Amino acid sequence: MRFRLTPRETSFYDMFAASADNIVTGSKLLMELLGADASARAEIAERMRAAEHAGDDATHAIFHQLNSSFITPFDREDIYALASSLDDIMDFMEEAVDLVVLYKIEELPKGIDQQIEVLARAAELTAEAMPNLRTMSNLTEYWIEVNRLENQADQIHRKLLAHLFNGKYDAIEVLKLKQIVDILEEAADAFEHVANTVETIAVKES
C-alpha cells in the first residue's frame, strides 16, 4: 500500500459500509416480496421506498464529505463511482418492487426467485467487503465471486425472457414482466460495477 505523510479522511469507510448494509435491507425486502400476496406488497413497497431514501441520504453524505475533504483515502473519481454504483443498486431494486405494485402483478414469473436470490447473495458479499477497504485486504475473492454471480444472473435473465415469450402470457403482461426482470438484471450489473470499482481501487492502492 502506498505510504502517505498526510492524514486521510476515514469517515468514507463507515459511510460505504452503511450504504452497503442498506442494500442488504433492500435485498431482504425483495425476498419478502416473493412470498407476499398482492395485498401485502404495497406495504413492502413502502418500506423499500424508505430504504431507497436512506440510500440516497447515504450517497449525499458521501458526496458532501468528498466535496469538503482535502485528503481522501483513495482517488476522488473512484469514491464518486463507488458511491454512485451503490446508489444505483438501491434505485433498481426499489423500482422493481414499485412496478410490481403499480402494475398489479398477480403472479411473478417462474425463475424470478433465482434472480432475486443472486441479488441477495451479491448484497451480502458487498456488505462484507466494504469494511475491508480500510486495509485493502481479502477483497480479491469478493470481486471474483460478484463477477461470477453477474454471469449467473445473465443466464437466469435469458431463461426468464424465454419463459415470458413462450406464449403463456398475453402481450401486455409480457411487457410488464419484462420490464421488471430487466430492472433486476440492471441491479445485478450495478453490483458488478461496484466490484469492478473496488478492484480498480485495490490495484491503485497496492
UniProtKB/TrEMBL annotation:
Against InterPro entries, the record matches this protein to: PhoU-like_sf (IPR038078), Put_Phosphate_transp_reg (IPR018445), UPF0111_domain (IPR052912)
* Signal peptide range in chain numbering: none
Q: Which Pfam families match?
A: PhoU_div
Family per UniProt?
Belongs to the UPF0111 family.
- Record's protein name: Phosphate transport regulator
Q: Which organism is it from?
A: Streptomyces noursei
